[in-house]
Design brief:
Shape: globular
Order of helices and strands: EEEEEHEEEE
Largest sheet: 5 strands, antiparallel
Structural class: mainly beta
Length: 116
């Protein structure tokens, strides 16, 4: 049986679109996270990134997203459940990064379900 863990996801508001808060890339992604939907990575990308604790999610939002993209009201942090990935790196069609190079508190996930 799969072991889902509790974590936190930083999303744009009100669109509920993923925010990539990795050290090498500062961008707004294109994955939508509806409440209670099981979300998987986009084709040619993976795994998804979540935060294991609220403090690191807040820190990423304050230090990366708000200075680069807008006001605190443009983002929300939501509690989520995630299915951990066994991978130690995340990739997009143009880049690959090891987990130890991502923002502090990042966990990699095969699936994410936002609870709020």
């Amino acid at each position: 049986m799969d072991q889902w863990l509790v974590g936190f996801k930083v999303l744009s508001y009100p669109e509920r679109v993923s925010c990539v808060v990795c050290n090498w890339r500062r961008s707004i992604g294109s994955i939508r996270y509806p409440v209670k939907a099981r979300v998987k990575p986009l084709p040619s990308c993976g795994p998804l990134c979540v935060f294991t604790n609220l403090e690191d999610a807040q820190s990423a939002m304050r230090t990366i997203l708000i200075p680069s993209y807008g006001n605190i009201s443009d983002f929300i942090i939501v509690r989520c459940k995630y299915l951990p990935s066994t991978r130690i790196y995340v990739w997009t069609p143009t880049d690959v990064r090891n987990l130890n190079r991502l923002f502090k508190g990042t966990a990699l996930a095969e699936k994410v379900m936002c609870l709020e």
